[in-house]
Design goal:
Blueprint (H helix, E strand, L loop, with lengths): L1 H32 L1 H9 L10 H13 L4 H14 L4 H16 L3 H14 L6 H13 L10 H16 L6 H28 L3 H14 L6 H15 L2 H14 L4 H12 L11 H7 L13
Amino acid sequence: MSAQRMTLEPRKSLRSLRLAAGLIALAIPLSGCGSASLWDKFTAKDDTFNEEPADKLYNEGLYLMNQRKDNKAASKKFEEVDRQHPYSDWARKSLLMSAYSFYNAGDYDSCIGAATRYVTLHPGSTDAAYAQYLIAASHYDQIPDISRDQGRTEKAIAALEEVIRKYPTSEYANSAKAKLEGARDQLAGKEMDVGRYYMEKRDYTAAINRFKTVVTRYQTTRHVEEALARLTEGYMAIGIVGEAQTAAAVLGHNFPDSRWYKDAYNLVKSGGLEPSENKGSYISRAFKKLGLGSLTNMGRG
């Protein structure tokens, strides 16, 4: 027992010595400078930070953006206004300018974030329309090639429609309408691209569904003429000649000089038929919604 006790006690003593040494090490700086002085160091303010006037920061941002063409640096200046003077009128202006500088720099996600914040915080501002337009333009400028997913195009359309709906009399409404047609044309192009693929595979039903989307949703795009001709071709291929005749008739009525009408007319004629409108067809109804009037039976050589 004495031997065991002799073995354990030094270990216990060694641990005690280590603990004591640690406490002494902690106590030395405290006793050297005093607890009050140490606390002051932790709580002291950083004297290196100097608040700058809001107008000075704002004008520096404008200079960097307009004269130096450094939009990234400009956006940092505008953000600094918001950080140092969050409740000032300069902060409101700077938030919009930061969105604009982000847009110029091609940092579309940051632009969308800043512009969305502006619209949320200042919905009644005279510049809210421009902030909403920047959101739409940021999505629009990221529209991908028709071979890729068109999710960004859908977002652009929704944002552009928001500009037109909320601010119909603003100076940005007309620009939004023009961009909206471009975005819709892109979606129509995607449908046509897929439809042509199915036509090549002789999957006429799948192809017709794609061309039908163009005719019913995107009648004002440049793709509608080809879509009507393709519908004529698809319906003739599967023997639904009534819809083929209607597609050709609608095409001839609205685009009589189109080369696509000549193809559709000749295709219908090759089956011993004439272009003829079925007023109950979805094709006819889609175009009547545009105010193009009723169609008449027609035959053109």
